[in-house]
Design goal:
Blueprint lengths: L18 H14 L3 E5 L7 H6 L5 E5 L2 H10 L6 E5 L5 H8 L8 H7 L5 E5 L6 H15 L6 E5 L8 H8 L5 E3 L2 E3 L2 E4 L3 E3 L4
Parallel strand pairs: 1-2, 1-4, 2-3, 4-5
Antiparallel strand pairs: 5-8, 6-9, 7-8
Helix pairs in contact: 5-6
């Protein structure tokens, strides 16, 4: 099976700067020969983005909130491999209730996906209101482009709450007797889009 095995309960971590998260990212990069990382939800750049930056791989990261984007710009200044995009990963209607008022670029995530190919790790960790919408953008882009299992890795934070629990359920639902393999470590979930027969579970 072309998928990273689920971690044991005693390996579960709670934050995105733990040794567990670093090790998981390193395993994915090595196993799937990752060449590029796309991230939504930079925050101040000191969490997952910093870990991605330290890999030396090209990183495109999206942050909507201005104060976070400004902090991230300073915190990531030492990493020329990181491009910070200040704006909406999706469309304004989803973010207005929380961040309304600013006029910022929209639909940044689809634009980055169009230039992505095999060997891309996509990490989704933006605001909860955007979670499933971002997931659908990635999923239908993956289907349309016809990538093979293992060519694209989708990694989602907050997979057990409202941000991405629906995304995980979508992947695990039966389709023609099969479902996507989703690997979870409490708050994280990731898939290489390989499938498993329902009878194997």
């Amino acid at each position: 099976m072309n998928a990273i095995q689920a971690l044991r309960p005693d390996e579960i971590g709670l934050h995105l700067t733990t040794p567990l998260f670093r090790a998981t990212v390193a395993r994915i990069i090595e196993r799937y020969k990752i060449q590029r990382i796309i991230e939504s939800g930079t925050n101040d750049g000191t969490g997952s983005t910093a870990i991605f930056a330290q890999t030396g791989l090209p990183v495109d990261t999206i942050e909507l909130k201005t104060k976070h984007a400004e902090a991230a710009k300073a915190n990531l200044a030492a990493y020329p491999n990181v491009r910070l995009h200040h704006g909406n990963s999706t469309h304004r209607d989803l973010t207005d209730p929380v961040y309304g008022g600013e006029s910022l670029p929209e639909m940044i995530l689809p634009g980055l996906l169009e230039n992505a190919g095999p060997g891309t790790l996509i990490f989704l960790d933006s605001h909860w209101m955007q979670g499933f919408d971002e997931f659908r953008m990635v999923y239908y882009w993956w289907r349309r482009r016809g990538f093979a299992p293992g060519e694209i890795i989708l990694f989602m934070d907050d997979a057990t709450n409202r941000k991405h629990s629906q995304s995980v359920h979508f992947l695990q639902r039966p389709q023609h007797g099969k479902h996507f393999v989703v690997n979870m470590a409490e708050r994280w979930a990731w898939t290489d889009f390989s499938t498993r027969s329902d009878e194997e579970d």
